[in-house]
Design goal:
The complex is a heterodimer of chains A (98) and B (637). Chain A has 98 residues and is mostly helical. Chain A is built from three helices and no strands. Chain A has one domain: Helix Hairpins (Orthogonal Bundle). In chain A, helix 1 packs antiparallel against helix 2 and helix 2 packs antiparallel against helix 3. Chain A is elongated and about 50 Å long. Among the domains of chain B are: 206 residues, no CATH class; 74 residues, no CATH class. In chain B, strands 1-2-3 form a three-stranded mixed beta sheet. The chains are: A mainly alpha (98), B mainly alpha (637). Chains A and B meet through helix 1 of A and helix 25 of B.
Amino acid sequence: MIQDYLILSVILFCLGILGVISRRNVFTVFMSIELMLNAANLAFITFSRVHESMDGHVMAMMIMAVAAAEAALALAVVILLHKHKGKLDTNVFSLLKG
Amino acid sequence: MEQTANYLGLIPLLPLTGALVIGLLHMLTCTKKPLPEKLYSVLACIGPLLSFFMALVVLFQLKNMAPEDRFLSHIPFTWFAVGELHVDMGFLADPLSSLMLVFVTFIGSLIHIYSIGYMAGEENYGKYFAYLNLFLGAMLILVLGNGPVVMFVGWEGVGLCSYLLISFYTKDTDNVLAGNKAFIVNRIGDLGFVLGMSFLFWAIGSTGFDFLSLRENAHLLTPGIGFAICLLLFVGACGKSAQIPLYVWLPDAMAGPTPVSALIHAATMVTAGVYMVARFSFIYSHFPSAGTIIAWVGILTALLAAIFGMFQKDIKKILAYSTVSQLGYMFAGVGVAAYSAGIFHVFTHAFFKALLFLGAGSVIYALHHQQNIWKMGGLKAKMPITYATMLIGALALSGCPPFSGFFSKDEILFMALANGHPGIWFIGVLVAGMTAYYTFRMMFLVFHGEARDKQAYDQAHEPPAVMTVPLIILAAGAALVGVFNLPGIFGGSMSVSNWLAPSLVEHHPHVSIWLEIMAIAASIAAVVIGITIAYKKFGHGAEEPEFTGFAKLGYHKFYVDEIYNAAIIQPYKAIGSLISRFFEPNVTDLHVKFSTWLYTKSGKAFKVFQVGYVRIYAIYMVIGLSVMSFFLSQSIN
């Protein structure tokens, strides 16, 4: 039973990673990050049930709050990026190239 | 046995505060409109005058104590303590330092006052007085220091001020070079001082490194190390007090303003070496052979400098060589274990040499910075006060009875004879004659005969009272201070020698009165002969001669500067350039270059990973986290 939840969490997390790595659209990357956060949330809740403590719940609530704040910020960043280059392709933004 | 006197520290502190205040005022205003000179003058003279009054208080407090208890100390704080080395920032006033203290502050104050007139209208007026106050503070630390380390602080401080003031007129490169020369030559001497001090600590310093403790432990010194300490400390004295072979800086130091030459390079700083040797008399008295070396170096310096002095044409150079020569006498005195005679000559010399320098300053001032004595002449009528005061100074310098120089110089020569050094005595008498000759050569050429430069003569005038009054006071001193140490033969009681006795370790030999009379007669004869020759040659005016043969050699100072340049400076520079051309690029720079090369190369190698796409960085993170998780899971199992 617990394994099922955890396996689901791992699958969600790996999907998120794959999304971040393989997709080039900024929105898709952003959504993938959210997916990873929620995978972590699921794992927290699961362990919370196993250990019968509320700590995991608290953590999950906190992550949601952070995710909401992050969403607000990230959307603003995306708008600025679009204003700057007129595109939402992550490969356009490669100033760190050595 | 020693008492505390909590005002001793204030004596050097007052001029130092003056230096700080004046220096800050000057720094803040020098780019804008400069502050009035009167303000600086008042600020500059307060510190030295107050110090002088406090020095008198110290003197009288000591006088009211029993002779063997005459030690006042003040230790404001512990400076540092490392292992066995415990050094207090402490001050000690005993008969020796109190004597130095009184005349340093007295002459220092007079020269501050004189400077008000001499420096009037000069650029950087404030800076000059800040340096002068700083010098006085450092000199007082030197004199009052209760141990070698505190003394060394003052020692270096006066060296710094000497450097700053020699190159005061920075517009002329020669002056700056003269300052550098003084500073560098002094460093050589200071190395000797530091080494001597280190040996001293290593040998007997562990139970207290101040003069009083060292004095109690001086008998523990082994002959070898004690002899080495004596000579190393004397190397320090050689640098500061311009003795062979390190005397070359002092004549060049005349590049500074004339009051500076009077204060630093005649009356006070250059006698610090003599003071130091007298301070360490408790060591030197155990090693008479080291003393003999000092005495011979001193008397040979006196002879050499007197020869140079006879042929110079710059009035300040003549006085500079005469200072070197008189310092040689002082070392001859302390070398033959006549410490009080040496110190007494320091004392009288401070008066008459400061007087002569200030008089020369008046002449230079009146003639608009003309220093060549062959361009002067006949100034007696134009500058009667300067003439009269300088004449007293010249008589004192020559050693004419009853002026002060006679008693102090004669005491040294007599003690040399009495302690069994007839060679030193003979050269000393010879030099006394030469001194009389070159001093009066200068006097006759400057003040007597016809004016050789008519235009300068017509513009010449007596300087203002702020300059002549110090001259008169110093002239009174130069004429009279000899009476403080009248020997028994003239009905005196050697007051200064007796006063200094608790600070020094010396023995007074008993010799027949005829020997003393003979010595005095010989000195007087030498002086009379010297003055007579000078009068015959220059008394009625003379034209500048062409220097040939020995005179040319003497005028060029035996080419010692050139020899030093060829034998020391040029090889040194050659080694330097050799190192900079071959050793540095091929050895020391090599590993620096290698490491920079390595960093550049490895940076280029890692550059390929920096692709600039965020998602690739995400892959790196995933890889890194995976590896970390893998090892973590391994360690848990």
